[in-house]
Protein backbone atom coordinates (compact mmCIF):
# COMPACT_ATOMS: atom_id res chain seq x y z
CA UNK A 1 0.00 0.00 0.00
CA UNK A 2 1.26 3.50 -0.81
CA UNK A 3 2.19 5.23 2.44
CA UNK A 4 3.04 8.78 1.40
CA UNK A 5 3.76 11.22 -1.41
CA UNK A 6 6.63 13.62 -2.04
CA UNK A 7 6.02 16.48 -4.49
CA UNK A 8 8.68 18.79 -5.86
CA UNK A 9 8.53 21.76 -8.15
CA UNK A 10 10.91 21.56 -11.12
CA UNK A 11 12.57 24.83 -12.20
CA UNK A 12 14.37 26.59 -9.39
CA UNK A 13 13.70 23.70 -7.01
CA UNK A 14 14.65 20.26 -8.30
CA UNK A 15 16.71 21.74 -11.14
CA UNK A 16 19.65 24.04 -10.47
CA UNK A 17 20.18 27.37 -12.20
CA UNK A 18 21.92 25.58 -15.10
CA UNK A 19 18.78 23.43 -15.61
CA UNK A 20 20.64 20.36 -14.36
CA UNK A 21 19.91 17.97 -11.51
CA UNK A 22 22.38 16.94 -8.85
CA UNK A 23 23.38 13.36 -8.10
CA UNK A 24 22.19 13.95 -4.51
CA UNK A 25 18.69 14.87 -5.66
CA UNK A 26 18.50 11.88 -8.00
CA UNK A 27 19.68 9.49 -5.30
CA UNK A 28 17.22 10.88 -2.76
CA UNK A 29 14.28 10.48 -5.16
CA UNK A 30 15.39 6.94 -6.00
CA UNK A 31 15.53 6.08 -2.29
CA UNK A 32 11.96 7.31 -1.82
CA UNK A 33 10.84 4.93 -4.57
CA UNK A 34 12.52 2.04 -2.81
CA UNK A 35 10.49 2.91 0.29
CA UNK A 36 7.19 2.90 -1.60
CA UNK A 37 6.72 6.66 -1.52
CA UNK A 38 5.05 8.17 -4.58
CA UNK A 39 7.28 10.79 -6.23
CA UNK A 40 5.65 13.65 -8.12
CA UNK A 41 6.96 16.62 -10.06
CA UNK A 42 4.53 19.58 -10.10
CA UNK A 43 5.51 22.10 -12.74
CA UNK A 44 4.15 25.05 -14.63
CA UNK A 45 5.76 23.63 -17.77
CA UNK A 46 3.63 21.93 -20.40
CA UNK A 47 4.19 18.21 -20.95
CA UNK A 48 6.20 19.02 -24.07
CA UNK A 49 8.39 21.50 -22.18
CA UNK A 50 8.87 19.01 -19.34
CA UNK A 51 10.13 16.37 -21.75
CA UNK A 52 12.45 18.97 -23.29
CA UNK A 53 13.87 19.66 -19.83
CA UNK A 54 14.48 15.96 -19.25
CA UNK A 55 16.23 15.59 -22.58
CA UNK A 56 18.60 18.38 -21.58
CA UNK A 57 19.57 16.64 -18.35
CA UNK A 58 22.84 14.74 -18.15
CA UNK A 59 21.32 11.48 -16.92
CA UNK A 60 23.37 8.32 -16.84
CA UNK A 61 20.47 6.12 -17.93
CA UNK A 62 17.53 6.34 -20.35
CA UNK A 63 14.83 8.96 -19.89
CA UNK A 64 12.48 6.44 -18.29
CA UNK A 65 15.03 5.93 -15.49
CA UNK A 66 14.22 9.40 -14.11
CA UNK A 67 13.02 8.50 -10.56
CA UNK A 68 9.48 9.89 -10.48
CA UNK A 69 6.01 8.37 -10.75
CA UNK A 70 3.74 11.23 -11.86
CA UNK A 71 4.00 14.68 -13.38
CA UNK A 72 1.47 17.41 -12.58
CA UNK A 73 2.07 19.72 -15.54
CA UNK A 74 0.74 23.05 -16.80
CA UNK A 75 0.16 24.03 -13.15
CA UNK A 76 -2.32 21.19 -12.68
CA UNK A 77 -4.17 21.33 -16.00
CA UNK A 78 -2.89 17.83 -16.70
CA UNK A 79 -1.45 14.81 -14.88
CA UNK A 80 0.67 12.11 -16.52
CA UNK A 81 1.87 8.80 -15.11
CA UNK A 82 5.61 8.41 -15.61
CA UNK A 83 7.29 6.77 -17.47
CA UNK A 84 4.23 5.19 -19.10
CA UNK A 85 3.13 8.64 -20.40
CA UNK A 86 -0.50 7.77 -19.60
CA UNK A 87 -2.64 10.90 -19.34
CA UNK A 88 -4.77 10.37 -16.24
CA UNK A 89 -6.38 13.82 -15.86
CA UNK A 90 -6.79 16.98 -17.96
CA UNK A 91 -8.75 20.25 -18.00
CA UNK A 92 -9.43 22.97 -20.57
CA UNK A 93 -10.92 26.46 -20.77
CA UNK A 94 -14.09 26.76 -22.80
CA UNK A 95 -14.23 29.02 -25.86
CA UNK A 96 -16.32 31.50 -23.88
CA UNK A 97 -13.75 31.59 -21.09
CA UNK A 98 -10.93 32.13 -23.60
CA UNK A 99 -12.76 35.15 -25.02
CA UNK A 100 -13.40 36.54 -21.54
CA UNK A 101 -9.74 36.28 -20.52
CA UNK A 102 -8.39 37.67 -23.79
CA UNK A 103 -10.80 40.59 -23.51
CA UNK A 104 -9.53 41.35 -20.02
CA UNK A 105 -5.90 41.29 -21.21
CA UNK A 106 -6.65 43.37 -24.30
CA UNK A 107 -8.43 46.04 -22.27
CA UNK A 108 -5.27 46.42 -20.18
CA UNK A 109 -2.95 46.27 -23.23
CA UNK A 110 -1.25 43.18 -21.82
CA UNK A 111 0.86 40.92 -24.05
CA UNK A 112 -0.36 37.33 -23.88
CA UNK A 113 -0.33 33.80 -25.29
CA UNK A 114 -3.14 31.26 -25.72
CA UNK A 115 -2.09 27.61 -25.44
CA UNK A 116 -4.01 24.89 -27.24
CA UNK A 117 -5.69 22.09 -25.27
CA UNK A 118 -3.76 19.08 -23.99
CA UNK A 119 -2.02 17.22 -25.65
CA UNK A 120 -1.25 20.08 -28.08
CA UNK A 121 -0.27 22.58 -25.38
CA UNK A 122 3.08 23.35 -27.00
CA UNK A 123 1.20 25.17 -29.81
CA UNK A 124 0.07 28.69 -28.99
CA UNK A 125 -1.15 31.97 -30.42
CA UNK A 126 0.45 35.18 -29.19
CA UNK A 127 -0.57 38.81 -29.20
CA UNK A 128 1.62 41.84 -28.49
CA UNK A 129 0.36 45.39 -27.98
CA UNK A 130 3.69 46.75 -29.19
CA UNK A 131 5.20 47.58 -25.83
CA UNK A 132 8.82 46.97 -24.86
CA UNK A 133 8.51 43.54 -23.30
CA UNK A 134 11.77 41.57 -23.68
CA UNK A 135 10.62 38.62 -21.57
CA UNK A 136 7.52 38.15 -23.74
CA UNK A 137 9.69 38.27 -26.86
CA UNK A 138 12.14 35.78 -25.34
CA UNK A 139 9.37 33.26 -24.66
CA UNK A 140 7.97 33.59 -28.18
CA UNK A 141 11.48 33.12 -29.61
CA UNK A 142 12.15 30.13 -27.35
CA UNK A 143 9.14 28.26 -28.74
CA UNK A 144 9.15 29.88 -32.18
CA UNK A 145 8.36 26.68 -34.16
CA UNK A 146 5.06 26.36 -32.29
CA UNK A 147 4.15 30.05 -31.96
CA UNK A 148 1.62 31.75 -34.26
CA UNK A 149 0.77 35.47 -34.10
CA UNK A 150 -2.86 36.31 -33.53
CA UNK A 151 -4.30 37.33 -36.91
CA UNK A 152 -6.62 40.22 -37.83
CA UNK A 153 -9.68 38.15 -36.90
CA UNK A 154 -8.42 37.92 -33.35
CA UNK A 155 -9.73 34.93 -31.43
CA UNK A 156 -13.02 34.67 -33.28
CA UNK A 157 -13.67 31.00 -33.83
CA UNK A 158 -11.00 29.94 -31.35
CA UNK A 159 -12.06 26.90 -29.37
CA UNK A 160 -10.85 25.53 -26.07
CA UNK A 161 -7.44 26.24 -24.50
CA UNK A 162 -5.29 24.90 -21.69
CA UNK A 163 -4.37 28.36 -20.45
CA UNK A 164 -3.73 32.00 -21.25
CA UNK A 165 -0.44 33.51 -20.13
CA UNK A 166 0.21 37.26 -19.83
CA UNK A 167 3.76 38.56 -19.41
CA UNK A 168 4.01 41.79 -17.40
CA UNK A 169 7.31 43.74 -17.26
CA UNK A 170 8.69 44.09 -13.74
CA UNK A 171 8.19 47.86 -13.61
CA UNK A 172 4.47 47.47 -14.41
CA UNK A 173 3.72 44.51 -12.16
CA UNK A 174 2.62 46.19 -8.91
CA UNK A 175 -1.00 45.36 -8.10
CA UNK A 176 -1.74 43.79 -11.49
CA UNK A 177 -2.17 40.24 -10.23
CA UNK A 178 -4.74 41.27 -7.63
CA UNK A 179 -6.70 43.29 -10.19
CA UNK A 180 -6.76 40.47 -12.75
CA UNK A 181 -7.74 37.94 -10.09
CA UNK A 182 -10.72 40.12 -9.17
CA UNK A 183 -11.80 40.70 -12.77
CA UNK A 184 -11.54 37.01 -13.63
CA UNK A 185 -13.33 35.69 -10.56
CA UNK A 186 -14.44 32.11 -11.05
CA UNK A 187 -11.28 31.14 -12.90
CA UNK A 188 -7.92 29.99 -11.54
CA UNK A 189 -5.46 32.90 -11.76
CA UNK A 190 -1.87 32.01 -10.87
CA UNK A 191 1.16 34.27 -10.59
CA UNK A 192 4.77 33.25 -11.11
CA UNK A 193 8.13 34.91 -11.52
CA UNK A 194 9.40 34.48 -15.06
CA UNK A 195 11.85 31.55 -15.29
CA UNK A 196 13.49 33.40 -18.20
CA UNK A 197 14.51 36.82 -16.88
CA UNK A 198 13.65 36.04 -13.21
CA UNK A 199 12.01 39.47 -12.90
CA UNK A 200 8.87 39.76 -15.03
CA UNK A 201 5.46 38.75 -13.70
CA UNK A 202 3.67 35.89 -15.42
CA UNK A 203 -0.09 35.75 -14.93
CA UNK A 204 -1.52 32.38 -15.96
CA UNK A 205 -5.25 31.75 -16.19
CA UNK A 206 -6.70 28.24 -16.10
CA UNK A 207 -10.15 26.69 -15.66
CA UNK A 208 -11.72 26.97 -12.23
CA UNK A 209 -10.13 24.52 -9.81
CA UNK A 210 -6.87 24.10 -11.71
CA UNK A 211 -3.76 24.54 -9.59
CA UNK A 212 -0.88 22.47 -8.33
CA UNK A 213 -2.74 21.75 -5.09
CA UNK A 214 -5.94 20.69 -6.88
CA UNK A 215 -3.90 18.38 -9.11
CA UNK A 216 -2.18 16.91 -6.07
CA UNK A 217 -5.50 16.48 -4.25
CA UNK A 218 -6.95 14.62 -7.23
CA UNK A 219 -3.92 12.32 -7.34
CA UNK A 220 -3.90 11.73 -3.59
CA UNK A 221 -7.57 10.73 -3.66
CA UNK A 222 -6.93 8.40 -6.59
CA UNK A 223 -4.17 6.70 -4.61
CA UNK A 224 -6.11 6.48 -1.37
CA UNK A 225 -4.21 9.03 0.71
CA UNK A 226 -4.85 12.42 2.26
CA UNK A 227 -2.92 15.70 2.33
CA UNK A 228 -1.47 14.78 5.72
CA UNK A 229 0.54 12.12 3.86
CA UNK A 230 2.09 14.67 1.49
CA UNK A 231 5.33 16.63 1.71
CA UNK A 232 5.97 19.33 -0.90
CA UNK A 233 8.89 21.58 -1.77
CA UNK A 234 8.85 24.66 -4.00
CA UNK A 235 10.49 27.99 -4.73
CA UNK A 236 7.93 30.51 -6.04
CA UNK A 237 4.43 31.92 -5.71
CA UNK A 238 2.91 29.37 -8.08
CA UNK A 239 3.85 26.75 -5.45
CA UNK A 240 2.10 28.59 -2.61
CA UNK A 241 -1.25 26.78 -2.79
CA UNK A 242 0.53 23.42 -2.91
CA UNK A 243 2.75 24.25 0.07
CA UNK A 244 -0.26 25.39 2.08
CA UNK A 245 -2.27 22.29 1.20
CA UNK A 246 0.40 19.68 1.89
CA UNK A 247 0.89 18.15 5.30
CA UNK A 248 4.39 19.66 5.31
CA UNK A 249 5.78 22.36 3.03
CA UNK A 250 9.39 23.30 2.39
CA UNK A 251 10.92 26.08 0.32
CA UNK A 252 14.44 26.21 -1.03
CA UNK A 253 16.75 29.04 0.04
CA UNK A 254 16.38 30.83 -3.30
CA UNK A 255 12.63 31.37 -2.72
CA UNK A 256 11.24 34.90 -2.11
CA UNK A 257 11.67 36.17 1.44
CA UNK A 258 7.95 36.15 2.28
CA UNK A 259 7.70 32.45 1.37
CA UNK A 260 10.78 31.64 3.44
CA UNK A 261 9.11 33.29 6.43
CA UNK A 262 6.09 30.98 6.11
CA UNK A 263 7.60 27.56 5.40
CA UNK A 264 10.57 25.51 6.53
CA UNK A 265 13.62 26.50 4.50
CA UNK A 266 16.16 24.05 3.15
CA UNK A 267 19.27 24.56 1.03
CA UNK A 268 18.98 26.28 -2.35
CA UNK A 269 18.28 24.57 -5.67
CA UNK A 270 22.01 24.85 -6.42
CA UNK A 271 22.84 22.94 -3.24
CA UNK A 272 20.44 19.98 -3.56
CA UNK A 273 17.64 21.46 -1.49
CA UNK A 274 15.22 18.71 -2.56
CA UNK A 275 17.53 16.05 -1.12
CA UNK A 276 17.78 18.10 2.07
CA UNK A 277 13.98 18.21 2.38
CA UNK A 278 13.75 14.46 1.83
CA UNK A 279 16.40 13.78 4.46
CA UNK A 280 14.46 15.62 7.17
CA UNK A 281 10.99 14.42 6.16
CA UNK A 282 9.41 12.70 9.21
CA UNK A 283 7.22 10.20 7.35
CA UNK A 284 10.14 8.60 5.51
CA UNK A 285 11.09 6.45 8.46
CA UNK A 286 7.52 5.14 8.68
CA UNK A 287 7.39 3.62 5.21
CA UNK A 288 8.45 0.12 4.28
CA UNK A 289 10.57 -0.99 1.37
CA UNK A 290 8.87 -2.56 -1.63
UniProtKB/TrEMBL annotation:
Name the chain's protein. Answer: Periplasmic soluble lytic transglycosylase fused to ABC-type amino acid-binding protein (SLT domain fusion protein)
Which Gene3D superfamilies would you find in this protein's record? Answer: 3.30.1240.10, HAD superfamily/HAD-like
PANTHER family membership: HAD SUPERFAMILY HYDROLASE-LIKE, TYPE 3, PHOSPHOSERINE PHOSPHATASE
**Source organism per UniProt:** Desulforapulum autotrophicum (strain ATCC 43914 / DSM 3382 / VKM B-1955 / HRM2)
- InterPro entries attached to this UniProt entry: HAD-like_sf, HAD_sf
Q: Pfam families recorded for this chain? A: Hydrolase_3 (PF08282)
**Domain of life assignment:** Bacteria
- SUPFAM superfamilies per the UniProt record, alphabetical: HAD-like
Amino acid sequence: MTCAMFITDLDGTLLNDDKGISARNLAALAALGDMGIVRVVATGRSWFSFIQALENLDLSGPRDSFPIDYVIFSTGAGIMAYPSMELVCDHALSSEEVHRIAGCFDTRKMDYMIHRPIPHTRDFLFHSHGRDNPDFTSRVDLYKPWATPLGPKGINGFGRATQLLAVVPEQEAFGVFEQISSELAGLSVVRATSPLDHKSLWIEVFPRGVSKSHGAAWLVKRLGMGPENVVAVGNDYNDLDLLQWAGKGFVVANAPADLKSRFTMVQSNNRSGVAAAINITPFVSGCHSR
